[in-house]
Amino acid sequence: MERLRWAKIAGEAAFHAARDTKTAARPLRLHGHDFAEIFWIDAGAGVHRVNGGSFPLRPGTVVLMRPSDCHSIDLKGRDEIKLTNIAFPAGTLADLQPRYYSPLLWPFSPMGKFPVTRQIEPFQRHRFNQWADELARAPRERLFIDRFLLNVLADLSLEPQEATLTDAPYWLAQACRAIQSPDHFAGGVEEFLRLCGRSREHVARTVRLYFGTTPTDYVNDIRIAYALRQLEMGDQAILDIALECGIPNLSHFYALFRARTEMTPRAYRLIRRETV
């Protein structure tokens, strides 16, 4: 297996930016490297084989590759895949992590078996490509790769609990991402089960294994996290927030809220809305 070296690829440059098209005749063959990279799929579909695992690739798939990862991309027949790739030295990560992330939440953490893989929306992919275009035009200095990485990582960090999804089954990870939306979590645990596409018993076992909780508590945690943000930043009536969360029984909403915050929604709003 080939191991790519940063010194040979980019020398003293702070980053390398490229777009490429892979086909079955010209695939990305199995390799490792001594640097990190972020790549995302702009068009097409394939299979990402990394560290002995296999993960589907489709438009909007983003992968945060660590220096320790080994990977390839498989394609069949006339399939092709277009991707954007931003590579940078391992030392860049060593500088960013202590300043911006706790070790447990660091998306390039070496602890997980597989690199973080995310599915972003088309508008996010457009934004990522704009940032990549700006980076490609910039001098190959640390300032510009740091700015790019902070933009991308901040955008990816907006979705909670992602660090726990790295090793979860693909169907569960996809359902967990979808249930973050009010359009879905308002439907409660039944909507979560529908998104999972598995039996209630199988979902319960798997959620317990990966998150140490029940599907009902998982969905309710997401609902209350949403309510917290609404109380902090908006002027909606508490009943309206409860309804948006899919909890029409206000007493039940208060009970869930108290269990997680040890205060009422009104008390939380008063404390968090104070001007500092």
Q: What would you note in describing this structure?
A:
Helices cover 46% and strands 22% of the residues. It is globular and about 65 Å long. It is α+β, with helices and mostly antiparallel strands. A hairpin with a 2-residue loop joins strand 5 and strand 6 (53-57). A five-stranded mixed β-sheet has the order 1-3-8-5-6. Helix 5 runs antiparallel to helix 7 and helix 7 (188-196) packs across helix 9 (215-233). The protein starts with a strand and ends with a helix. It contains twelve helices and ten strands.
Quick rundown:
By secondary structure, the protein is of the alpha+beta class.
Write the layout of secondary structure elements.
Elements: E1 2-4, H1 6-9, E2 16-23, E3 28-33, E4 35-44, E5 46-50, E6 53-57, E7 61-65, E8 71-74, E9 80-89, H2 90-100, E10 116-119, H3 122-137, H4 142-157, H5 170-178, H6 182-185, H7 188-196, H8 200-211, H9 215-233, H10 238-244, H11 250-261, H12 265-272
Parallel strand pairs: 1-3
Antiparallel strand pairs: 2-9, 3-8, 4-7, 4-9, 5-6, 5-8, 7-10
Helix pairs in contact: 3-4, 5-7, 7-9, 9-12
Sheet-strand content, in percent, reads: 15-25%
Distance between the termini: 56 Å
**Order of neighbouring strands in the sheet with most strands:** 1-3-8-5-6
Question: What are the low-pLDDT stretches, counting only 5+ consecutive residues below 50?
Answer: none
The SSE order reads: EHEEEEEEEEHEHHHHHHHHHH
Shape: globular
Please bin the fraction of helical residues: 40-55%
Secondary-structure class: alpha+beta
Query: What's the rounded overall pLDDT mean?
Result: 89
